[in-house]
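Let's practice the habit of predicting before peeking. Look at the sequence and jot down your guess about where helices and strands might fall. Then scroll down.
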Amino acid sequence: MITKLNLASQPFRNRTLPYLISLLFLAFAVAGAVLSFAGWRDAASRNEIAKAEIEQMNTELQALKGKGALVQQSLTPEQQNLLIAAHRLVANKTFGWSRLFADLESLLPGAVSVSRIGVQNVYQDGDKTKADLEFAVLSRDYKSIITMIENMNSSGIFQAELRGQDLQKTESITYTEYTLRLLYTPRYGYSPAATTASDVAQTQAGGTQ
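Done guessing? Here is the structure:
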């Protein structure tokens, strides 16, 4: 019994198994390296294709810009004015006037009332529609006008600049009309194309409210 328990008398003789295990691990490592290399080559190939497409797009863009510049240079002053007017007309028809009135109403103090709004220009600035307005209000309190201008300039949608003031008197009241220049940009998330029927009617009426 003691002889059978003495394992040193019968040492492990299967010497090929460790080599087989080592070869198996080596095969896994080689397969992983091959897969990694294939993935790297695929990513590099896609990167090269993307670079080529970007370069082609830039070339086409530069060509289009060059053609546009040539067209602009070939236009007569009358044609250039007509083109500008056409751009203004398109921007004017896609502008939401009801949104403008709502934004103005939200910023006017109680002691200030609107007397007139004149639309000087409506245009596209990138993907934004903007309006250059002549804006007049009536008030008996100058501090309310200053508060209104501060509210507009901090709103992110108006840039207000006081241009003039005109003292007016009636038999029962004395007040001042203040004239301002407003640059109006609708808030983000507002779609200029989503105009209502009243917006279009106000636009076609001539732009001056």
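How did you do? The helical segments are 2-5, 16-74, 77-93, 97-107, 142-153, 197-204.
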